[in-house]
Model the fold of this input.
Amino acid sequence: MQLFAVVAASVFAAQLLNWPIPGGTSAHFVGGAFAAIVLGPHLGALAVALVVTVQALVFGDGGTLALGANVWNVAIVQAYVGYGAYTVVADRDERLAAVVGGWLGITAAAASAGLQLAVSPGFGGEFLAVVAVMTGGHFLLGIGEGVLTLLGIRLLDWTGIEADRLRLVGAHA
Amino acid sequence: MSVRAVATVRWQRRSLALLLALVLLAPVCAWAATRVGYAEPMTNAAELAGVASEAAPTGHSLFSGYALPGLGTYAGTFGGALLGTGLTLVLALAIGRLLASGR
Done:
């Protein structure tokens, strides 16, 4: 219970760190794969869904009409794809698996968001361009997401969480 | 279940310290945003696609921009980060408790 709360709050706080990129845009840690790796995909998705809901309803970020799309992209797609990629690689190298999970998770989420944008009337006729820009850009930026996913897991390990995490996993078994 | 109740063991105290560190960094990002002429990426994309004029607000918040009103940019951003992180922590504790009680 406490681990779920700490992960959700840390994803919220980390998403606030919106690092501006010269040129007027920005990048920030999203954390869907991080939450899924630490909590398991179902609880991880729930934690991130809570984060985007607070962002939309309390802070007006993302918009209420887009809440469903945001939950789908960030909480569902990123968490499950990131977790799936993590599990495929984890047997070989757990640290690499965290990076790959974060990287492919955010890339899949961006592809999903790109598809949604591309089929919206405002972007009509630019289907391939929108999907390519969203997916390609996040394929590169996603390396940072992967590294930060690993960093987040290492920081949680530093807190001494492992014993509690094992207890949580044991409770699910 | 209160936030204080979370900090009963070492990993929880350390986790709260890390959360506070993240919250303290929020005003730094707000400052950095002013240095590069920051605008929301989706706004930039809409302008590039020529559809920015079609945007319509779907809701209003006292805390838009993750800042508490009336405190200035940096103190307001710190306050907004503290509010949002604390609120998420409390709500997640409540959800976690509900899940645990149903298990």
